[in-house]
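Supplementary notes for students who missed Thursday's class. We covered one full example, reproduced here. Read the sequence, then the structure, then the short commentary at the end.
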Amino acid sequence: MTPRISAFLVYSIAVTLVSFCIPFSDAAAAVKKKTASGTYKVTYKKNKARFKAAPQVADLDSSGHPNLLSHAAIVFDQTSGQMLYAKNADNAMPIASITKLMTAMVVLDAKLNLDEAVVIHESDIDSLKNSRSRLPVGTAFRREDLMRLALMASDNRAAAALGRTHPGGAVAFVEAMNAKAKALGLTNTRFIDSTGLAPGNVASPQNLAMMVAAASAYPQIREFSTTAALHVKLAENGRELGFINTNSLIRSDGWNIGLSKTGFINEAGKCLVMQAIISSKPVVIVLLDSWGRYTRVGDANRIKKWLESGKVAIATDKAKAV
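Structure (token representation):
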């Protein structure tokens, strides 16, 4: 069983973005593949984003800054090292599944065997928030597959399994997460678990901008977090599992996104972080505690329009070096 299950995402690699430098619109429109044994059918499909518009507000406020509804936000220019926009940037707050970016970095830093089979255990079931997962208990997946599902579909059971199977277990994994945060200079960041379900996972937007910039240096994180969609047919019962990226902007032709992660728990609100190429420059966007279902998408689009307008200089009173 293990070899068949562990191979279920192999062919998805060919249809995802290998580097943030490749515009998403260059990806294949639709690809259907089968493993050599015919065990799995993995389908990747690039669809246009389907989401309702965020509340209608002006793109810019009276000061000429993007009119953002998120409680906290950062726009960070990776090339210049400048924070172009900041709102409540230094306040540590719950970050929900944005945590999974650190989870992925710790897994990759540990240089564990990504092909190793990891069996989903009952202890990986979320008993804190009772979030759902379609990864069956007792089923084996490659460690790499679990990392992909944790990043693109924000699967909490996958992230829990990654932490549990780290050398020393979940406790050692969280220690490694906090050690990595310290090494990156994230002084307003603390991790409690590998999923982000615990509200004790906190960071300031300024720290998250630095964390996203660090995560964008990992090719696997860039690729896995921007996978648009996967459909997996399990051999045991013929059940098909469909996964889509939790960031609808990934499926939008207007965006060139190199890294993405969403998050939500009640304590954190709707969250979104991205590394994207806008006006030919790599930019990090952090949006925390967005109210409503579509506000973070609307805020991201307003930031994009602002950066493309050429009026960024009017926000220099908020700019500071990171």
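Commentary. The CA atoms of residues 45 and 235 lie 21 Å apart. Confidence is low (pLDDT under 50) at residues 1-54, 314-322. If anything here is unclear, bring it to office hours.
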